[in-house]
Design a protein that fits this description.
8-stranded mixed sheet; Lipocalin; 28% strand; 9 helices; globular; Rossmann fold; 8-stranded antiparallel β-barrel
């Protein structure tokens, strides 16, 4: 019965997170319909150098305003005029499943009355000007705007960890690749979906060599739909891998049953899983034993948990009475993996305070060691 009540509690929390609230304040994203996106806002920013007006959409974590000390990684999403609502739900679901941390989403779009998105994105996302598209070639200026103006503005307005990811599809996908190879340390992760590799006689083929003499510490994910046959996606990505660029971790997928537009759903999910993949480090007995013990929930609304040191590993009896081996993300953070959304964060590496933050789906509780 306790397990069933806990399941119902978890489900009710997840469902409640999708409900609408009272009338939103100014700059909250909504329209005349009966539904809007909670925990969102926007601001406009005009580039000092390129003089172009941008609308920036922001999704904040649910506890952002109630927890004034929290800091969060940032997901920068291009083409927010189309994809921000999709990423809004995707971010919530993936955080619930512990695929990604409690991130802020910053969606990049354009301001102004009735903006021509096709024309605006063609100019900002493309790396060179071509005869076929005279209104093109603004990628360098757009990247400079993001680096020198947008990111500082976001970090001034919001509490961030400094970890940043850049996402884009189609023209946005080639812009993401352009950003990686021209500013390899600006972002920690890059997701490029169905990038426009045919642009200007495959100009992107020259870019991987730019990192021969540069150190890079980033992850790249590339995917495309199986029905897309107009660009050499797999060949290009394998070519990047063959360069053995120091510090660059590359993964790619061909999305089955999908084309150029529909493949972005699976692409962004798998891409976020790749760039936020937790490490699994090895800790010795001396490092692990301080975390063993019995813990009780400080709010008394979640069951007690027990952590034991067994055969060189930490084993925790979960909420259903099943023993789960804990994997170490670092010297004080642990998780289960295997698709189970369970994470533990201790206050320090020696567990001197006997306190641990416990996350199960999107329920977060504080636990105190009792013995």
């Amino acid at each position: 019965m306790k397990s069933m009540m806990l399941i119902l509690c978890i489900v009710s929390v997840i469902v409640a997170s999708e409900k609408t609230s009272t009338q939103p304040k100014d700059n909250t994203i909504y329209d005349n319909s009966a539904y809007w996106l909670n925990q969102t806002e926007y601001f406009d920013l005009t580039g000092k150098e390129n003089k172009r007006a941008y609308r920036i959409y922001v999704q904040l974590p649910w506890n952002y305003k109630s927890n004034n000390s929290s800091k969060h990684p940032v997901i920068y999403l291009t083409d927010a005029q189309w994809h921000f609502p999709m990423m809004y739900s995707m971010r919530n679901c993936m955080y619930t499943d512990s695929d990604i941390p409690d991130a802020i989403v910053v969606g990049l779009s354009w301001a102004g009355e009735d903006p021509n998105y096709h024309s605006l994105r063609t100019y900002d996302f493309t790396p060179t000007q071509t005869k076929q598209e005279p209104n093109s070639g603004g990628a360098a200026a757009y990247l400079a705007f993001i680096k020198n103006e947008l990111i500082p503005e976001v970090e001034k307005r919001y509490r961030t960890t400094g970890t940043k990811m850049l996402l884009g599809t189609s023209y946005g996908g080639i812009f993401t690749l352009y950003s990686l190879f021209h500013e390899p340390n600006l972002f920690d992760g890059y997701i490029s979906l169905s990038p426009a590799l045919n642009w200007d006689n495959h100009v992107a083929n020259k870019w991987p060599d730019l990192l021969k003499s540069k150190k890079c510490n980033a992850r790249l994910y590339v995917s495309w739909g199986v029905y897309e046959t107009f660009a050499p996606f797999e060949e290009y990505t394998k070519g990047i891998i063959a360069k053995n660029i120091e510090g660059l971790q590359v993964k790619y997928d061909e999305v089955q049953g999908s084309g150029h537009a529909s493949s972005i759903f699976e692409g962004y999910v798998k891409g976020l899983q790749h760039i936020f993949k937790k490490p699994a480090i090895t800790l010795d007995e001396k490092s692990l034993k301080p975390f063993a013990g019995s813990y009780t929930c400080t709010t008394k609304d979640f069951p007690d948990i027990t952590i034991r040191f067994k055969q060189g590993k930490l084993v925790m009896r979960d909420l259903w009475g099943v023993n789960q081996t804990l994997l170490a993300a670092d010297n004080k953070s642990f998780y289960v993996g295997k698709g189970l959304p369970l994470e533990l964060w201790f206050t320090d590496e020696t567990n001197s305070k006997g306190m641990v933050t416990f996350k199960w789906y999107d329920n977060v509780r504080e636990y105190k060691r009792v013995k």
